[in-house]
Amino acid sequence: MSQAAARVFIVDDDERVRCALARLLRASGYHVESFDSAEALLDRADLASVPACLILDLQMPGMTGLEVQRNLDQLLPIVFLTGHGDIGSSVEAMKGGALDFLPKPVCESLLLAAVDRALKRACVEWAKRSERAELQERVNHLTRREREVMALVLTGRLNKQVASDLGAAEKTIKIHRARVMEKMKARSIVELVRLAEKVGVHAADDN
């Protein structure tokens, strides 16, 4: 999905700040959703349904920005804004994966540059998650026997070796193997290995 379809979420308890940031970002062509609290953001379903980044106030009533960051567990790239920042908070934010930590009042050019970087990262991460989800769906459509065959095929075993390991006819293993390749949409064993690694499926000898 392209950056044009991405979202910028803003969380700040100061309405004037929220509105100013939203106007700036919309004027720069971004799709923006704003929230007056961390809880309101976290109540929103499907935060990662499209590539998105988060502009997050550090100090807010209720859940703080750092608590939101820990709750999201790097689901979204975060740009922190604060009028009360200190070295300890910025270090903790960066260790937690924050992309930037900008003071209020924020420089517009620095903010726009940070958002651009954040959305580029978001698009890359979203594409990776989407690919893993699609590959997992392919794996889910394999039968138990097909998974057993795939695990052995990933070791480089030939059909007759797989047949011996599973106590089955070589002809039957050949059919299962073909179905595995078809369901996983792999054109070669090398590609099957690559796809399996992406979704965390290991060869039989690795289990």
Automatic annotation (TrEMBL):
It comes from the Bacteria. GO terms for biological process: phosphorelay signal transduction system; regulation of DNA-templated transcription. Keywords: DNA-binding, Phosphoprotein, Transcription, Transcription regulation. It holds the Pfam family GerE. Gene3D superfamilies: 3.40.50.2300, Winged helix-like DNA-binding domain superfamily/Winged helix DNA-binding domain. The modification 4-aspartylphosphate is found at D57. Residues 135-200 form the HTH luxR-type domain. InterPro entries: CheY-like_superfamily, Sig_transdc_resp-reg_C-effctor, Sig_transdc_resp-reg_receiver, Tscrpt_reg_LuxR_C, WH-like_DNA-bd_sf. GO terms for molecular function: DNA binding. Residues 7-119 form the Response regulatory domain. PANTHER family: DNA-BINDING TRANSCRIPTIONAL ACTIVATOR DEVR_DOSR (PTHR44688:SF16). This is Response regulator transcription factor. It comes from Paraburkholderia panacisoli.
